Amino acid sequence: MNEKSRTATTPHWLFTLTALLAMGSLYATGRSTVLFGVAVALVAVHLTDQRLENGTWPVWIIRFLAGALIFTSGNDPGFRGADTFLTGRSMDWFGQYCAVEMTLQCWIRRPQLPTGKLTGLCVMVFLAASNTVDTGYIRYLAPLYLLLLIRAMNAFAEQGGTRPERRFGPTLAVGVAATVLALGTGGAGFYGLWIWRGEITRWSNDLLFGNPSDETGLSTDPRLGATRDLRGPLHRVLRVDAQGGSDRQDISHLRGLTFYTYEEGRWGPQIEGRLFRSALPLATGGTDGGRLHITRLVSNSGFLFLPLGTRSVSVEKGTELLWDQDGGRTVRGGMTAPFEYEVTLGGTTAAPAPLAELATADERALALEVPGGIDPQVHALALRIAREAGLPIPSPSTGRSVPNGRGGEPVGLEGRNTRALVEAVETYLTRNHEYSLSTNPGVGDPVSNFLLERKAAHCEYFASSAVILLRCLGVPARYVSGYYLHERTGLGLLIARQRDAHAWAEALVPGEGGAGERWVTVEATPATGRPDATDGPIPAWTRLSEWMQDAIDVLRGSIVRSVGITGAVIIGVSVIAFLVWRDIRRQKRLAPEPVYRYSTPPDMEALARRFEMLLGRRGYDCPADRTWNEHLEKLARAPLHEGVLDAGDTPVSRPREEILKPLGAFVDRYNRARFGGAPTPETLAELDAQLRQLEASPSGDRAPAARN
Amino acid sequence: MGQSTQIIQNIERNLGQVIRGKEESIRLVLLSLFAGGHALLEDVPGTGKTTLAKALARSIDGEFRRIQFTPDLLPADILGSSIYNPKDGTFSFREGPVFANVLLADEINRTSPRTQSALLEVMSENQATVEGRRRDLPQPFFVIATQNPVEFHGTYPLPEAQLDRFSVRVTLGYPDLEHELEVLYGQNDHHPLEDLQPVAGCTEVLDLQARVRAVRVDKAVAEYILRVVQQSRTDPRLRLGVSPRGSLALYRTAQARALVDDRDYVLPEDVRALAVPVLAHRILLDTKARYGGASSAAVIEELLDRVPPPR
Going by C-beta distance under 8 Å and a sequence separation of 6 or more, which residues neighbour residue A350? Predict the structure, then answer.
């Protein structure tokens, strides 16, 4: 058998890589397992020369089955937005179907790969992935995807889409090994993308933009529901240098946001809906509680994370700090990472730390408001907790104790009693509820359900419950989200990661010795559920990549210091421009000649186009670089493809000459009319009739066209 | 079958008796004859170059002359010179060997460029200027030159201008076993060349040349020729592309090929089949490409692949 007649076209590996990336992105949004199989099939194309014949029933069956599978599987990635034309689910189906068709096209036997079709389908898959919901990472994958796509198209231009022919005669053992290898590499590659999606996001993000990824660890809009899926849980958010002697202060709870209003499992109001009332500079000076040097490693929000005991904050010169009274946080617009600030801790009896102070009278009223949707039994539960602890219940309006039925406490001990109430609530929650990342909020108010059904849930539930129970007991409380600082990386050095995102409560208690009220941290989450207990060890390769990232940061910092930001930008742009210019020049050199249009009479051109379509339908596509006669001669020399069966499952027996003869006769006649002088209308009519006859005749064998 | 095809087949058959198993090469030499050009046979000694030239001359019943090129040959030895006649005290012109219908320039690269250049005018204009006087050559006038590509001692490479004047460059190559056996037995009694009879006259050849020029070349085919040629002029691997004389030679030989195939129109296939023998010897590879292992023929084939033919 003529080896060159084996036309098992295989896409360039760069294309396969591009397609896998697109499919991985789509999988990340819809998580349909069909895509896993498709990815394996795509990789398997590289390992075997077996191909499907175009237009035969197996191809249609695969299409039908894949369509059915896609239709019946996969999660709904939800809506992209109210104004989108398609739902997320239909977009996901569409993307999956494109992936199936793309892979199928690679599996079909043909003289040349349909590079345009493949590229188009691959782009469709990636676009579908970009248009479903969970696409925070898409913008980081997009540059990589585009880079790969361009490279793959380059490869197509160079090699006509195919890798060089190679001989591959698989024995059974080799075939089995190849299949296992295909399953392994396809699966590993695909799942690798999924498992490391957080890291890929982070790396691409840090390397390409020096810009952080989404801060999904911290709930900026807490909504009690099933577990939030943290993306990039190992991503570092804050680096804290506590060598300035902060031993006397609690720095484990770094506050980000505080919330006062609660409605049906949702803390609010949303950040976007609030106005920053005024700029209130924090107190300056004072070193009684020690210092913290904090570096924000991500910068998508303008929050400064601070311990409750913060006395003052100092930032680099020329940076304006805004004090958001409503949110109880410090914000700054236009923050770029790494952003460093220094925190001075401490507060005296006379001048408590500003964050722990009651800002306004309204704040107290807000912090006492028991939400309307709460089950009345929760109120009863709160009273029971107090009663069981033997504590009087403070009056909601004054903060003074009222008799609880067992005899009142002397006035003046309210502060101690309130603190005891807080402790009782903490104790109750930690003892009676278990921590679990997966929870079912149930129907109705999730906090009521959590408390009354004694469910297991995550920190947001514990914090919310603590706030509501305390409010039921007349203790002002608020909900706080931030990071739980516990991971030590050196002497006095700490790191907060995305996975350390935490929620807790703060209660307003009277100060000791009759001092004014101040906020204190209420940690109601059981010790087993706090980040220090749940966090696993950091993998070695993560540490390595962090070390490299730090090294790059140092390098970037030193470049910016030595040549300035403008200089660094100019150097960067010049390097990119040089690379682009080199690529364009290379592409120009490799680009095929623009299609030249010979002077051809329109009638003849139409006939030629029809004849070429006829050839294509029969599987005899004629390459542009040869004439029809040459092509037919080569076909005549090529042997019939092995294993071609007709409808009756018997090998095709018609000799090649018999199939090609009428085609050759048409070509001769056409050439005479085309090159032998102006064709008469009669000649054109005859040619048309002859071509019609060919088009109507059975399609002949589907043997591969000879490529060389 | 047309009359022209009949004549051509007769000549081919005649030549086939002497040169065994080399139909394609014979066809190329004949195409260059009918196209009004000249042929350069390039091969190692003993492959039948001279025999082919002699057989062709004999087949067309024309006058055959042979010049054995040597380093001491002078232009006058080729073109002719005036000789003083002491009887009547006048000079009479004695024609050189170029005044023939078929001229065999044997081992053309063995003579100096000065003598080689004497053929430039003869080959392109079918005339010779000797001692300031223009003399027409007999028609048809056909030069078959041979050169041995393996020997370098005592040879002068043909100048580009000279190479460009050959329509085709043909390589005969060794015969296969079967045909070489026929050669061995065929020359037992005498050389078959001696039996060769003319099968066409000079007038018929001239007539054929006129008919070749009447073969139709569609504009698309002519464009195709020019596009291939233009590619050779812009290819970075080539120091010298194909000249307009090369385009014309390809055009004319394609016409001849169409006539030989009994067609009155040229197909793109004609151009493609002739591109290598007609163009390959006209281009000059640059040093990098030459040492990179590229050959002129391969480059021309690549140019053909790059330009889609008209359909």
Answer: none
* Subunit contact B223:A598, Cβ cutoff 8 A: yes
Contact A113, A160 (CB under 8 A): yes
- What average pLDDT does the segment A659-686 reach? 85
Query: How many helices (H) and strands (E) would you count in chain B?
Result: 13, 11
Nearest-angstrom CA–CA distance, A113 and A105: 8
Q: Which helix (H) or strand (E) holds A199?
A: helix A197-204
Distance from CA of A495 to the nearest CA of B (A): 60
pTM of the model: 0.48
* Confidence band for A644, pLDDT divided at 50, 70 and 90: very low
- What is the pLDDT at residue A122? 92
DSSP A313-353: EEE-TTPPPEEETTTTEEE-SS--SSEEEEEEE---SSS--
- DSSP one-letter code for B71: T
Contact B25, B31 (CB under 8 A): no
What pLDDT shows up at residue A20? 92
**pLDDT tens-digit profile of B52-85?**
888 888 888 888 888 888 888 888 888 888 888 8
Q: Where are the beta strands (DSSP E) in B43-141?
A: 64-68, 80-85, 90-95, 102-106, 127-130, 133-136
Please tell me the distance from the alpha carbon of residue B221 to that of residue A321, in angstroms, as a whole number: 78
Q: Is the CB of A158 inside 8 Å of chain B's CB atoms?
A: no
Which of A213, A194, A195 lies closest to A203 in space, CA to CA?
A: A213
- Give residue A172's pLDDT: 62
Do B223 and A629 make contact, defined as CB atoms within 8 angstroms?
no
Average pLDDT over residues A40-54: 85
pLDDT digits 0-9 by tens, A65-101: 888 888 776 555 444 433 344 556 777 888 889 999 9
Spatial neighbors of A241 by CB under 8 A, at least 6 apart, are A292, A293, A294, A295, A492, A493
Q: Please give the backbone phi and psi of residue A291, each rounded to the nearest 5 degrees, phi first.
A: -125, 150
Q: What is the mean pLDDT of residues B262-266?
A: 88
Three-state helix/strand/coil letters over B200-219? CCHHHHHHHHHHHHHCECCH
Please give, rounded to a whole number of angstroms, the shortest distance from the CA of A152 to a CA of chain B: 22
The percent of residues in chain A predicted with pLDDT above 90, rounded, is 9
What dihedral angle (degrees, nearest 10) is formed by the CA atoms of A186, A191, A194, A195? -140
pLDDT at A186 > cutoff 70: no
Answer yes or no: are the C-beta atoms of B198 and B60 closer than 8 Å: yes
Residue B251 vs residue B193, higher pLDDT: B251
Contacting B residues, span 250-279, partner chain A, CB-CB under 8 Å: 263-269, 272
Sheet holding A477-484, edge to edge: A306-307, A253-259, A477-484, A501-510, A517-522
From residue A493, give the alpha-carbon distance in Å to each of A239, A292, A295.
7, 10, 11
- A639 pLDDT band (50/70/90 cuts)? low
Query: Average model confidence (pLDDT) for chain B?
Result: 84
Structure tokens at A249: 């202060």
- Determine the Cα–Cα distance for residues A262 and A116; give it in Å rounded to an integer: 55
* pLDDT for A102 beyond 90: yes
Which residues of chain B lie closer than 8 angstroms to A600, CB-CB?
A: 220, 310-311
Which chain A residue has the Cα nearest residue B221?
A: A675
Check B269 against A593: CB less than 8 A apart.
no
Mean pLDDT, to the nearest integer, of B26-49? 85
Longest dimension (CA), chain A: 121
> Which value does ipTM take for this structure?
0.83
DSSP 8-class letter at A431: H
Q: Do B218 and A628 touch (CB under 8 A)?
A: no
Residues of A in contact with B308 (CB under 8 A): 595-596, 624-625
- A665: number of Cβ within 10 Å: 12
Phi first, then psi, for residue B282 (nearest 5°) are -95, -15
